[in-house]
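help with this record:
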Amino acid sequence: METLQELLVKQELLVKQKQDLQLESERLAKQVADLKASQPVSVEISIIPPVVQLKTLKYFDPLNQLLRQIPMRQYDSVSGLNSIPAKYFVDLLPKLEALNIEIKWKSSKDEILNFINQHDYSISIVENHFLILLKASLNDWNLKRAVPQVKSVKKFHYTLGLQEALRLEQFLSTLAPADYSFNNDVRAEFDKQKENRDKFKVVKSQSVVTENLNLLNLELKPFQTVGVEFQHLAPRCILGDEMGLGKSPQAIGVAVKENDRTLFVVPSQLVLNWSRQIQKFTDEVPHVLTGTKPTDIDYLDLLAKERKVKFTIIGMGSLGRPLNDETGKYSDWANVINLSKFDRIVVDEAHYIKTSESNRSWVVRQLVSDKLSLLTGTPIMNRPKELWPLLNMINPVTFNSESSFEYAYSNGNNGVRNVHELREILDPLMIRRLKSEVQQDLDPINRIIEYVELSAKAKKVYNKCLAGVYEHLLTGASQEITHILALFTRLQQVCTVAKYDYVVDLAQRILEAKEGEEFDKVIIGTQYVSSAYVLASKLKALVITGQMNMEDRMRVADNFQNDPARKFLVCSTKSVQEGLDLTAAGSIINVDLLWTPAGHQQFEGRAYGRLNDSHSIDSYYLLANKTIEEMKWGLLQEKLNTIEQVSDGVSKSEESSGIFMEMVRQMKETGFIPLA
């Protein structure tokens, strides 16, 4: 056991050792401090967009004071990192250099400065597209909202079709000049498209284009020459003139002007009318495609070079429903038509494709050509959802998203918003004239002829009646005028009954096209009371016939004039020729033909009005194809022209007798030709 003295000695020794260790620790600490003090102040700099990071390796008060002054600076005490927005680094760098501290570049100085000097949006043209480079980490939300058609190809890289130059330029105009840059090619494209837009505005503001258009067997009205020129400048466009202003000759006119092999896609009931108009205006017989699937002959006609014709027509009904296989939807007609490579496609009544989900809309929008004219008299601009399918067909790249288009321009209640922007988009794509704007070029009564093809059943009945007429005319049977006139009347009635569906369709088309206009009502006239009641039932229309007394007729006429919900009036033609005011109508339909032109003039006068109540009207004459109605119309037209050119007319009895006897004479000369 140790003694007390030994323990005290040990204690003194331990105290001495502790003192020595303390002195050694202080000496080493001083050496470390001296070593640190002898090292230069340094900072490591790197960039992680959108911030520059600075890491200080020793405390240096002037540096720390400098960093504390930078807005939005963030400091991590654990890592010693200072993160500052990159845009402040340019001003900070010379101040760091003035402190004589060592700068260690973990990211190169050029890399950091290049990022800082890069514009938010850098734009060039590559492979017929705009290439838009966004500064790294920049949110693309503003760009996508302003220009929904941009497409991301990789991180911070976007492409946009050149046709969207206007939208892109408008978006850039909302930014500060320092936030974007583009090269000379982009500037040239912006200028070129502005020049084109200015040309469109000039053309659309003109009342006539003086260029010689004597390519047609037709004298175009001044405003129609403007429509032809607009289609020439805008090869893919909407011709949206009000119904009755002659969109068909304008579409045919530009096809002839540019020598285009053209496909006309039209409602099935209008195939005959288009065929006649093309022949009338061009002397070319169009090829008509029929059937819901192309035949071997159709493939030859469309694909064999030596069999291709200038003009081809197909009814929307013939295009058929799309088929489905393992690859999805397809259409035989669309496939062969696209292989045929038409120069131009014309779609009449283009609002028929307004419902994007419908099969008809899908099939028509599959058709491809460099030039496209969409004809519609319906003011669909007020309903963006119905406008999109037309724009999608004109430019499927720009207008590729129906939902985006609706979001931008629909107010959600079948109305429109952002109207000014929508008009700017449509300005180079659409021309629309109203009658009120071209009134000086129009006749007060615009007479329009439409032809109706009889059904197979109607042709059979017609041929039987026609044979009965010739039996009396050529075989010496009864030659009494009244008897032959009765046979003619029976022929006329067969034609009238065969037109019922066409009349209903035409009346509804007119109403839709004139939506929102002052004179949007339609009068339908037939000389047969039974037909008047049938048509009134089909159209849910008011009706006036000669069986009603004048008081009842006036009551119905007042209802038609004053009730905005009453759009259609069907009447027996002679029952409204005098004493009734029907000027609320802007259109009349002559279902069949009277024996006197004066009768039709009086019928038209009920709607056209007189003096202070007058306004122009469209007067439709429906003729059964290749029937006696065509002969009768030719004679009526001659008489009508004569009456309108001289002050003194002829009596109704003379007109009626003259036309009837001339028809008898002509029919005897031509002989019996049944409808095929």
